[in-house]
Design a protein that fits this description.
Length: 837
């Protein structure tokens, strides 16, 4: 190996050699520059005009221009030549000067090029000569790096050896320290065991002395001793004894603590608090303080106010509800004042515990009062819940602010999370009665809506109508209930915003849908009474009741008045949904921060508000509400009307429109139903010609009286409907309904009714066929006069029954070309007893 002195000598030698090589390179560069300057001087001297010499630097500029450079050099040489000739710049002289200048410039450039070539060749040769030296220097540096690497590796190896020796020494010291610690612990355990045995033997005498502080100190030493001794058979029942004596001590301390708290003896209360804390009975302090300082006193105040309200209340239900509202409002105001005074006393007595004692006490108070307050709130109608909510909102804000300020100002030893949790529990217990009622808001609101709708839809005169004017008056009253019902449902949404701040929007909407159903049921009862009073025949009935009579024509005009309700219902529902959607969007904007529950909201005072607590208390309901509100907002943003916001209610209102339409339909079709229903069972269809010994003339059949009665009634419909007019707001008269559409509809329904009866005929004689053909021809003409065309099936039946039986076979074979349904042809042949090939 190389010794340090030798390595230093080698390094100095190599450094000196490197400096010498660098000096040689610098000398070579200096010689090259000297030769360059000598060549420049030689080029200038070869021409005779030093001011116009050519240098290699002239060609190195980025913006070098050949033409400009030649012009500048030539111009200077010509001017110098003219001066040398005494200013003679004649044409001949000038031409000669230019040619000479160009030749000189060319010569200079050529000489400069030769010098540059020589210089480049010389420098290339010198560069090639320096390469071996450079390679040798690189090899020398690499060898030095290798030697340095070997030296560093040797140092690292020696350091690893030293570290291993040190680690072994440190581990030995650690084991020694651990043994020393265990020995000291064993010594302390033995000492504690000796003292614990004596302490447990004399604990009874300590408790017999009655000195509370001595009892507390003895129990503290016992607990420390048991913790040190651990699981030792001699003290196996030690923890049970400690628990029993702690419970006994708590029983001794609690009455004294109650007395101190009631008398506001701060010094005694603090001493007793320390005793409980020393024995780990902090919970006993909290429960005793809450019961003595807050719950008992406030509960007494509640019962006193409740008795006073009950004594002054009358038998009037509304007055009783108002008294309950006043009781809750005044008691919450009293509690709000009480918490501020209680915080002041608690801070002075228990400054380290006040941040927990006050929230725990208020939580205990409202947990005790929850059942009584909930019962009071449950009896209130939804119209009186709004002032109660405002009272709770004010109370929660004041209590939350007071508790938060207390937590920030008091020197509490409790953890921040414990204090925060105690405040949240207190606020939640405060609002729990109202939240319990708030969850039942849909039930309360539906009761209110039903009561109000019952008062609006109260039309007893529907049971005793006698004229069309009576029916028209009832129809006007029914129509007047629709905007009132819509206003009642709109008021429900406003109440929901006042009572629940929109938290129970979905319950409110369900209540509105149920209220719509109730309104439809009430109108259906009115229509039922009108139907019975007017004697309407149900067009869907398979047969008529015995002794039934059709409604008189005098009820037609009155029944048509109901069609205004048919037109008003969809418009009213659409307008209501538009307003309801706007209210829901307002609710979404107000509730969005609480429903999102972001960090900013959780850290703000709004998280401790009634809205924030209500949303937090029922997370699943809040998530459903958030989805519903977003769905409504998306539909509104897309201007989509495909989905109804009250789909069930809208369907009930559509059912109401169909019921009204059915009522008018039955009123207009009643006379036709009375005449035509049951005509299939007439004996006319099986009648045979009367046999006589005389040859009597035969006559064409005429329509039956029942058919002509129905036809005449249908022909009178246009006159009745055209006379049904109503007055507009400006006093003018306008048609109440689209009479042409209804006339055509009733005519087609009458044709279908007659066709259904005809299809029920079981047998048909020749005379019966002739009678049926006359009836069908007459009725087809009536229908054609009122509608576009009679049904094809009715026309087919008329043609088939009007064909003589002898020609029926030929007729049947040619029906395909006449577009007559083959099923009708076969059916008529069957009831007429005509065989078909």
């Amino acid at each position: 190996p190389v010794r340090p002195a030798q390595r230093s000598t080698h390094a100095r030698t190599e450094h000196t050699q490197t400096r010498e090589d660098a000096g040689d390179a610098d000398d070579a560069d200096a010689d090259a520059r000297g030769r360059e300057r000598a060549m420049d001087r030689r080029a200038s001297a070869s021409v005779g005009w030093s001011s116009s010499g050519v240098s290699a630097r002239d060609f190195t500029a980025d913006d070098f221009d050949v033409k400009r450079w030649i012009n500048e050099r030539t111009r200077g040489m010509v001017r110098d030549d003219a001066g040398a000739r005494g200013g003679d710049l004649g044409v001949g002289a000038s031409g000669w000067g230019v040619e000479r200048a160009l030749a000189d410039v060319e010569l200079k450039v050529q000489l400069l090029g030769e010098d540059l070539s020589m210089s480049l060749e010389e420098r290339s040769r010198e560069g090639v000569q320096r390469v071996p030296k450079a390679l040798e220097e690189i090899s020398s540096v690499e060898r030095a790096v290798d030697r340095l690497y070997e030296e560093v590796r040797g140092i690292v190896v020696r350091l690893d050896d030293v570290e291993a020796e040190s680690r072994t020494s440190v581990e030995a010291l650690r084991q020694l320290d651990a043994a020393k610690t265990r020995m000291e612990s064993a010594k302390e355990t033995l000492q504690e065991a000796n003292g614990l045995a004596d302490l447990m033997a004399g604990i009874d005498s300590v408790f017999a002395s009655g000195n509370i502080r001595s009892m507390s100190e003895a129990l503290s030493r016992m607990k420390r001793g048991l913790a040190v001794v651990g699981e030792v058979p001699e003290f196996a029942d030690g923890q049970d004894k400690v628990d029993a004596f702690e419970h006994k001590l708590e029983g001794i301390v609690r009455p004294a603590l109650v007395t101190a708290l009631e008398s506001q003896n701060s010094t005694a209360a603090r001493e007793l608090r320390d005793v409980l804390r020393a024995t780990g009975r902090d919970g006993a302090l909290e429960s005793t303080y809450a019961e003595t300082r807050v719950t008992t006193r406030m509960l007494k105040e509640w019962k006193t106010r409740e008795r006073d309200i009950a004594a002054s209340a009358s038998d009037n239900g509304a007055s009783k509800h108002q008294n309950n509202v006043r009781l809750i409002e005044e008691f919450l105001k009293y509690c709000s004042d009480a918490i501020r005074s209680e915080i002041t006393w608690c801070l002075a007595t228990f400054p380290e515990d006040a941040a927990v004692l006050i929230p725990v006490s208020w939580c205990s108070l409202h947990a005790t009062l929850e059942s009584a307050m909930t019962d009071k709130l449950s009896t209130l109608p939804s119209t009186l819940l709004a002032p109660v909510r405002r009272a709770f909102e004010t109370y929660v804000d004041e209590v939350g602010s007071a508790l938060t300020k207390l937590a920030n100002d008091s020197p509490s030893k409790a953890k921040a999370d414990v204090v925060k949790g105690a405040i949240y529990d207190a606020l939640m217990a405060t609002v729990e009665p109202f939240i319990a009622v708030e969850q039942r808001y849909g039930e309360f609101e539906l009761n209110t809506l039903r009561t109000e709708l019952d008062a609006v839809v109260n039309i007893p005169e529907a049971r005793s109508i006698a004229t069309s004017d009576d029916l028209g008056s009832v129809a006007h009253n029914v129509l007047a209930t629709l905007p009132k019902a819509i206003d009642i449902m709109s008021a429900a949404v406003n109440r929901c915003m006042e009572v629940t701040s929109g938290v129970e929007t979905m319950s409110c909407i369900h209540a509105i849908e149920s209220a719509m159903e109730h309104y439809v049921d009430l109108i259906a009862l009115v229509l039922r009474d009108l139907r019975e009073a007017a004697g309407l025949i149900d067009s869907n009935a398979a047969s008529l009741k015995p002794n039934v009579t059709a409604a008189g024509e005098e009820f037609i005009r009155g029944s048509m008045s109901l069609l205004e309700l048919l037109e008003a219902v969809p418009l009213a529902v659409l307008d209501f949904e538009s307003k309801l959607r706007g209210k829901v969007l307002e609710i979404r904007k107000a509730l969005r921060p609480a429903l999102d529950g972001g960090a900013e909201f959780r850290e703000s005072s709004k998280a401790r508000s009634l809205i924030g607590l209500s949303v937090t208390a029922h997370a699943s309901r809040s998530r459903k509400l958030c989805v519903f509100l977003d769905k409504v907002a998306d539909a509104a943003a897309k201007h989509s009307l495909d989905s109804s916001i009250v789909p069930v209610g809208a369907e009930h209102m559509n059912a109401l429109a169909r019921s009204v339409e059915k009522f008018v339909y039955d009123a207009l079709l009643g006379r036709v139903s009375l005449e035509l229903k049951g005509i299939a069972k007439s004996e006319m269809w099986t009648a045979k010609p009367v046999e006589s010994a005389y040859k009597l003339p035969t006559f064409s059949a005429y329509p039956q009286e029942r058919v002509t009665n129905a036809g005449e009634y249908l022909l009178s419909l246009p006159q009745h409907l055209d006379n049904a007019h109503e007055e507009t707001a400006d006093g003018e008269s306008k048609p109440a309904v689209a009479s042409e559409a209804w006339i055509a509809r009733i005519a087609e329904a009458s044709a279908d009714l007659l066709l259904k009866e005809v299809q029920s005929i079981r047998s048909l004689t020749e005379q019966g066929a002739a009678q049926l053909a006359a009836d069908l021809e007459y009725f087809s003409n009536i229908v054609a006069a009122l509608a576009l065309a009679p049904p094809d099936a009715l026309v087919a039946w008329r043609v088939c029954v009007g064909t003589p039986s002898g020609d029926y076979g030929t007729f049947a074979r040619g029906t395909k070309s006449k577009s007559i349904d083959a099923r009708v042809v076969n059916a008529v042949a069957a009831i007429r007893g005509i065989p078909l090939a």
